[in-house]
Write a structure and sequence with these properties.
376 residues, Immunoglobulin-like, 2 domains
């Protein structure tokens, strides 16, 4: 029942009441060229529904089970985009930022400088802001494991924000997204040779086995009902659990880092947006993901060092904390990955623009993460 509810929730998010609207929604960002042609060739509601069911079945990381983890993940990304990136009458999942998030997932670092603009005359003939400087740049980066899964060492996507209506436009001079796009789409397809919708991918399918078969024997007198026992279906083999590759990322600034729960069935980073503004005297909470490459409930020998740098009152500021050894909390839904977290007091920190640098050291591995924020 729980998985059926998840399926219905995903259907609502994707506006799939009429499957013929599938390619007009945010899932069009994930379709291959061949799928786009196949969908256009699908005539009628039944054919469109078959296409939709096959689309998800081909991307199910655990074929033969009720839950489609990929569909659930995409549903979360769509919901996050709709909540945070809506522009005027355009739903967030259909904006440029929505597209990038849905295709590549949550960045390791997600900056937002949309509020930091100045009205300034421009002589650029190609300036689409009407003679005013862009509101700012929204810079998203994927590093380490977040980028390596798309066969790139680092991915950076820059959005230019129009100060007149705050609509975002992906900077076409930055090719990283278009380079990662075909890789992301291809790798999302787990079963590329699947051409028909299997029984386990059809809506309403249940794995509850029934070993009673009713047969009716008709005679010239009274029909007799007998029962026979059929063998239960063979269990569907599950893929062995593998640890995610080594790496670190997803540095996020929050109010209370220790409010996040790592041992639930939801990724603690799903829907988590990084704060970019704090008040003097507050606690600056930070969380990051570290993947050791092996599955272990507890990790030892992991140290974290923080550094604040920036400019306040026209002066450069550099503050470093001592290395702190800790035991990160394992993330239940991400095998081999752990939650690194902590906090820094902003007492005595003057208003200004700062960068938090987080260095994670585990054995011979060293990872440097950064995130910008402002103190008011």
């Amino acid at each position: 029942m729980r998985y059926l509810l998840l399926f219905l929730l995903a259907s609502n998010l994707f506006a799939a009441d009429d499957p013929r609207s599938f390619a007009r929604g945010p899932l069009r960002w994930l379709m291959t060229k061949e799928e786009e042609k196949a969908f256009r060739a699908a005539k009628g509601v039944d054919a469109a529904q078959k296409f939709v069911d096959l689309f998800w079945a081909r991307r199910d990381p655990t074929p033969g089970t009720l839950q489609n983890e990929y569909r659930d993940e995409i549903a979360g990304r769509v919901a996050f985009a709709d909540k945070n990136f809506t522009e005027g009458q355009t739903r967030g999942a259909l904006t440029e930022r929505g597209r990038v998030l849905i295709v590549l997932g949550y960045p390791s670092n997600m900056g937002n400088e949309a509020a930091k603009y100045e009205k300034q005359q421009s002589t650029d003939a190609n300036d689409f802001t009407g003679g005013r400087r862009l509101a700012g740049r929204d810079v998203w980066t994927w590093t380490h494991a977040d980028a390596l899964k798309y066969e790139m060492p680092k991915i950076e996507v820059v959005f230019l924000i129009d100060p007149m209506d705050f609509k975002s436009h992906r900077d076409p001079q930055r090719p990283d997204f278009m380079t990662a796009l075909p890789v992301a789409i291809k790798k999302s397809i787990v079963s590329p040779d699947l051409t028909e919708v299997p029984a386990w991918a059809r809506p309403g399918f249940t794995t509850a086995p029934s070993n009673v078969v009713l047969t009716v024997e008709t005679t010239e007198t009274t029909p007799a009902v007998t029962t026979t026992t059929a063998p239960a279906p063979a269990p569907v083999p599950r893929k062995p659990i593998e640890a995610r590759p080594k790496g670190a990322g997803k540095l996020t600034l929050v109010r209370d880092a220790f409010a996040l729960e790592a041992q639930t069935k939801k990724d603690p980073f799903d829907g988590l947006a990084s704060l970019d503004q704090f008040k003097r005297g507050q606690e600056l909470g930070f969380v990051a993901e570290y993947c050791a490459g092996v599955i272990a409930e507890e990790l030892t020998g992991v140290t974290v060092q923080t550094k604040l740098s920036g400019i306040a009152n026209g002066q450069k500021v550099n503050m470093s904390g001592p290395p702190d050894e800790l035991i990160p909390d394992s993330i239940k839904v991400s095998p081999g990955c752990h939650l690194v977290r902590g906090s820094l007091p902003l007492e005595g920190v003057d208003p200004g623009q700062y960068t938090l640098s987080l260095t994670i050291v585990a054995g011979q591995d060293k990872y440097n993460l950064t995130r910008e924020f402002r103190v008011e």
